[in-house]
Specification:
It is a single chain. The protein contains 3 helices and 8 strands; from the N terminus they run ββββαβαβββα. With about 150 residues, the protein is of the alpha+beta class. It folds into 2 domains: about 5-60; about 70-150, Regulator of K+ conductance, C-terminal domain (Alpha-Beta Plaits), CATH 3.30.70.1450. Strands 1-2-3-4 form a 4-stranded antiparallel sheet. It is elongated. This is TrkA C-terminal domain-containing protein.
Length: about 150
């Protein structure tokens, strides 16, 4: 669709026709068509980029697994915290952060380049650029972010 965007069409197993028009600015228009007349639009919804992303996540949540804990219902949050290249903690041992003792937050994994290190112990040496996966209360995680953001 020159000047508008790219149109994607899909026919479902129930023989229903759907289309999505993807505009260059991230806006998406989702349309369904009448079963008895596939050229007659039954519904059309225009979505901002963030709304479209929310629909994608609802349809295909990348994080969903029946064996995963839904932490928000338990009062816990999980977040990724990136250590800056100039971080105070770069080259130091994880135990030196006193993370669990001072905040109640657990660092459950460290992502380093293309490697994941699950359950790092207190002797694990941190490096600038590491992404730490932390879990705890909202207050604890906020405090952990402040501590880990130290330059």
């Amino acid at each position: 669709m020159p000047g508008i965007g790219v149109r994607y069409d899909l026919v479902t197993r129930e023989r229903r026709r759907l289309s999505v028009v993807a505009e260059p600015d991230g806006v998406r228009t989702l349309s369904t068509y009448r079963k008895d007349d596939p050229d007659d639009r039954a519904m059309s919804v225009r979505l901002a980029a963030d709304e479209a992303a929310a629909v994608v996540d609802a349809l295909m949540p990348a994080h969903h697994s029946p064996s995963l804990l839904s932490t928000t219902e338990l009062g816990l949050v999980a977040e990724r915290v990136v250590l800056s290249r100039t971080s105070h903690w770069s080259g130091r041992l994880l135990g030196e952060t006193r993370m669990r003792t001072d905040t109640g937050v657990s660092i459950v994994a460290v992502l380093r380049r293309a490697e994941a290190i699950p359950s790092p112990g207190p002797e694990f040496r941190l490096a600038g650029g590491d992404t730490l996966i932390v879990i705890g209360t909202r207050e604890g995680v906020d405090t952990a972010v402040e501590i880990l953001g130290r330059e």
